[in-house]
Amino acid sequence: MDFLPSLPTLLAFSAASLLLAATPGPDMTLSISRALAQGKRAALFVVLGTSFGIVVHTMLVAFGISALITASPTAFLILKTGGAGYLLWLAVKAVRFGSTLSVKEVDEVAGTPLANISSGFWVNLLNPKVIIFFMTFLPQFVTAGDPAVTQKLLFLGFFFILIGMPVNTLIVLTADWLASWLQKNKGVLRGLDYTFAGVFSIFAAKILLTQAR
User: Fold this and answer.
1) How far apart are alpha carbons 35 and 200 in whole angstroms?
2) Which of 132, 157, 158, 181 is most buried (most C-beta within 10 Å)?
3) pLDDT given at position 213
4) Does residue 74 sit in helix, strand or coil?
């Protein structure tokens, strides 16, 4: 099965994906807010929608990046260098500004399952940070000379969803407690910030050092 990455690559990707899933962002804010306003069932449809958004990004990256590798390994090298810089920027931003979790407990008119799926889908599809992140994150786990690069990018993208879904579901099921606890325990969020910064600094350094040889 050529589409399967090596075990060390898969373990590194899994660790990074778990960290990303646990880091507050627009998708987590939306799902918790929806759980508080409309109930956990509505929020689970939001989570499903965010996953559909990731599917689209996975397809775009898998076929777009693989075409770039085939056409120009130099362009792929430039992309990965830019990706390393972006990861370092994320690390600095996490330490300087910290995570944000803005949950508004407001009364909302209950939406249909399709409406909640659509909300989750668009929040991930149109988020510039998600777009840029996927373009720089997934390519770090493939090599330019790999003939199965498209299949591996597809596998990693769907594996990212597989890892994130249980985490997001758990967040929804514990939304009442989690929203209150995180807002009262700012130190936990800061711990996530520093862990996030450390992991992606390591990824960025690995990319840059590999290119230097």
Assistant:
1) 30
2) 157
3) 43
4) helix
CA distance 69 to 48: 31
Q: Give the model's confidence band at 129: pLDDT under 50 very low, under 70 low, under 90 confident, else very high.
A: low
pTM over 0.90: no
Do the beta carbons of residue 21 and residue 168 sit within 8 Å?
A: yes
* pLDDT per position as a tens digit, 141-197: 887 677 788 888 899 999 999 998 999 999 899 888 877 776 677 777 677 778 777
Dihedral over Cα of 94, 179, 31, 199: its sign: positive
Collapse the DSSP code of 4 into the 3-class scheme (helix H, G, I; strand E, B; otherwise coil) and give the result: coil
Q: Which residue has the tokens 């507050």?
A: 24
Say which residue the tokens 């099965």 belong to: 1
Dihedral sign for Cα 67, 70, 73, 77, please.
Answer: positive
pLDDT: is 20 or 212 the higher one? 20
Q: 188-208: b or e for each residue (b if 16 or more CB lie within 10 Å)?
A: ebeebbeebbebbbebbeebe
Residues 6+ apart with CB under 8 A from 122: 49, 53
Q: Which residue has the tokens 């597809």?
A: 154
CA–CA separation, 20 vs 203, rounded Å? 14
Return d(Cα 118, Cα 46) in angstroms, integer.
7
Q: What are phi and psi of 191, to 5 degrees?
A: -60, -40
Phi/psi at 198 (nearest 5 deg)?
-65, -45
